[in-house]
Amino acid sequence: MFMYEKTLQYPVRVSNKDVRMAMAVLNQYGGPDGEMSASMNYLTQRFSMPLNETKGLLTDIGTEECVPRGCR
Fold first, then answer.
1. Residues 62 and 53 sit within 8 Å (Cβ to Cβ)
2. What does pTM read for this prediction?
3. What pLDDT digit, counting tens, does each position of 10-68 carry?
C-alpha cells in the first residue's frame, strides 16, 4: 500500500518572483527532457515488449517517474 503525504522536507520562503527559475522548474517537469516526458516514454515502450516481465518493469518505472511528483 502506498501513502502519499504532500509535505516539504525543508521550509520554503518565497520573497520575490524569479521568472527564470520558474521556467527552469517547469522545463524539468513538462519539457522535452522532463519527468512527464520520461514517464510517457517508458509507458509507451512497454507496448512493444514481448515478455510480460519487461512490460511490468517498464510499467513500474514509468509509474514511479510520474506519480510521486504529482503528474496525474
1. no
2. 0.55
3. 888 888 998 998 888 888 777 787 778 888 888 899 889 899 988 998 888 888 877 65
**CA–CA dist 71, 23 (Å, integer):** 17
Separation between Cα atoms, residue 16 and residue 62, nearest integer Å: 35
Cell of 34: 522532463
Q: Which domain holds residue 51?
A: 40-72
Half-sphere CA count of 72, side-chain side, radius 13 A: 3
Instruction: Tell whether 9 is covered by a domain.
Output: no
Residue 52 domain-assigned (yes or no): yes
Contact in structure between 27 and 34 (CB atoms under 8 Å): yes
